[in-house]
Amino acid sequence: MRIAFYIAFGFIQIGLFSQTAQLSTRSSTFNFNALGQTDLRNAAIIFPRGSGNIALKRLNFWVTGIKSGKDTFSIGSDIFSDRSDWVEGPAHTTGDEFIANWPGFWLLEKGEVEAHRKNYQNINYMLPNKISTWPSNISQLGFPKTLAAYVDDDLNSIYNPSNGDFPFLLGERNLLSVATDSFRKGGYKSAPIPLDISLQYFVLDTNANRVYCRITLCNRGLIDLSSVRFSAILDGQIGNALDDAMLSDSILNMVAIKNGQEVDAVYGRNWPALGYVLCNRDLGASIYIVEGKSNVSGEATKSAEFYHYANGMWLGGTSLSYGGSGVDGTVPSNYVYSGFSDTQNGKEPWLDNENIGKRTVVASSTNMDIAKGECTVLDVCYFILPNAPNIDSIRLEAKRVIEEYNGTDFTLGTGSPQKGSIRISTIFAKAGALISSEEHQLLSPIIYAMDGRRISVERNGAIQMPYSKGIYIMVSSKSKTQRLVIN
Ligand SMILES: [Ca+2]
Ligand SMILES: [Ca+2]
Hints:
By secondary structure, the chain is α+β, with helices and mostly antiparallel strands. It has two domains: about 1-405, no CATH class; about 425-485, no CATH class. It is about 15% helix and about 30% strand. Strands 1, 2, 3, 4, 5, 13, 17, 20 and 21 form a nine-stranded antiparallel beta sheet that branches. Strands 6, 7, 10, 11, 12, 14, 15, 16 and 22 form a nine-stranded antiparallel beta sheet that branches. Strands 23-26-25 form a three-stranded antiparallel beta sheet. One calcium ion binds near residues 243 and 244.
């Protein structure tokens, strides 16, 4: 049985090796690889679209943390080689089984889901494969049932899109993938970590050069995980990779990679900058690493080394420090300042032209505790800013990203405060879970719990639901889907 399993696993790895999926923005192409595979045939971000010019070479991620209160764990990749812990699909409770024929990416546009909702009852309707396989109804023992949000239109608590259920999308264009720890490829841990991660990349505004991502980390195992950090690994290459610089901003929770001098050998004077913003959590640490065997900033191979980087330490565990080379300063720091100042702490910038070069950035969240059986959500955004932007304009774009994020009602289920005014919530608060018939006629809303259960009923021309504090989804054919917060 075990032999058969690993043969199957090997086959999957070969199959995934060259798999990428694309999301286009206004003038850039984002290529997302099969999770954890660093040997991309396509660069992570091409700008301008179709030019072949690279604005980001590779994009990858690590998850690190502490299990059982003492041991560090990591699910990581040596991004300078093909070695990666990640395998596609969800985690089994034991961590060492996988779903052999996991289908990979789901690329879905909002219009496709709208067409499905409109046409699913037509006799000649062909249910699109990506809607029928949307991972909300996994029936294999030991694996989670639901990996992606959906709306349970027919109220039977099962994702059955042929009866009108539909994937819950976050943007105009959406790309979903799921991964977990394979542990066999990394080989430096005694057991796999039964933690899985689903990433829903999405484009809110097709006229911008921004791709958001909702990252859901789920602990499927039987022990609590603490101090969990999600780290994005941004293998920078603004045209010529050898003259780049890195910025950190601990107030805006942003890291960015820009050209370190006026003229780039590939882009000339009009090079783009790449930004990465944490939207609903703080940037916990930023650091950069180099290819090779440096004892300070070299390739991480052991669990503790990934953990150090994610926590703003150098490879061996010494603290990143402000000033000098970042190793010999006297003030410990969590952020690399190259080319920018840490405004929170009033540090001065390191000058770009004194410190330019290849930048492979590790940008990490702050600590998250994920108890057994629990999930947590992190929302991030990647952006490209064209035309040799200066530091102020990069900061301004990060600010605009946060404004867009805060002003958009796609934060379903993340527990952040209600945005804008929804009259219905006021009515809920005042009248105890009763929506007036006027509101009902206007919106014809149906209220769903976050797990997709329908919880509202219609009585005497009004919508009623049990009155309890929480966050719900309100779906209406007359208005866009909204979050309903009752507190
Ligand atoms: Ca259903
Ligand atoms: Ca460059």
